[in-house]
């Protein structure tokens, strides 16, 4: 066992030697971390220095603060995770982080989501990961690294063999770097989960989806894939389904916020009849309507016994389609999570899902609706459950007790940071 490190004392000394002012938020969290050290030293701890912490006074982390922080953590072996989301870090801060990643050999989890890191910062961090052999999970969500910044991460994926989860959602990436990332993933065998949400695409040809589909034909390690807001239509869905006939590794497919209609749902239904790997399918905010829901329910009722979670939130589905999905759950015992809010509920829908919940077939924490009665009629109220409940926000008070309410890889686990 190593000597107990007093992180707070080292932080005070580092601020003095570097001529920086102390950040009271960092100082408070380091005091708490030092107290936790005795119990956590064997498995490591994550320092949660998130700028959106509402339970304590927050002074958001600046580039200068990060320079001091990385200087004291460089040789601290029991800190294995660093959560710096929602702070004010820029490319100058990314330079300090890149130097830290090149020297540190214990950090496994790094969350930089929604800072102000741009293209040059992305280059520094991506190049640091050419040499880093310990980081397993990196979140760059919401940093506007652009197409050029994405290209540096595509190059990194050709070299790095340690990173398992990479989140590049909302990063303003373009067609060129998405194709480059797909090309790199065709050969990469370490990445298990990748988020490519909301790129900036200016073509109607769906070239990026075609290249991602080609990648899925060759990749046998990717487990989780997010393609939200890709302007995907039925053509793109058909290409993905053709690829997934041959893919036996992907478990979580996120196609939310696209332009998929009933014909696209028909391709997915055909896939579900044959694919024995997919466990989570997110179709939120598309427009599959009743016909699409019926295609899916038929596949789930009579053929598929693998899918565990389905989200059809806000898909313009009325009672006919929703009742078909509820009927599918009566014959398919494997489908445990279903999210339906934002569609057109009628009396039959409310009764069908009320019966599923009251009979115990559908657990309250596994759906986003809750039945209640008014004047003898059953209605459905919304619950704040879903596949991405904690994508942008995690409780400051600790771990989520019911992880299945934020299904993601909690259902189909890969590895934890």
TrEMBL record:
Keyword check for Nuclease: no
PANTHER family: LEUCINE-RICH REPEAT-CONTAINING PROTEIN 34
Species in which this protein is naturally found: Piaya cayana
Annotated SUPFAM superfamilies: RNI-like (SSF52047)
Keywords: Repeat
Gene name tied to this protein: Lrrc34
InterPro entries: Leu-rich_rpt, LRR-containing_regulator, LRR_dom_sf
Keyword Repeat in annotation: yes
Protein name according to UniProt: LRC34 protein
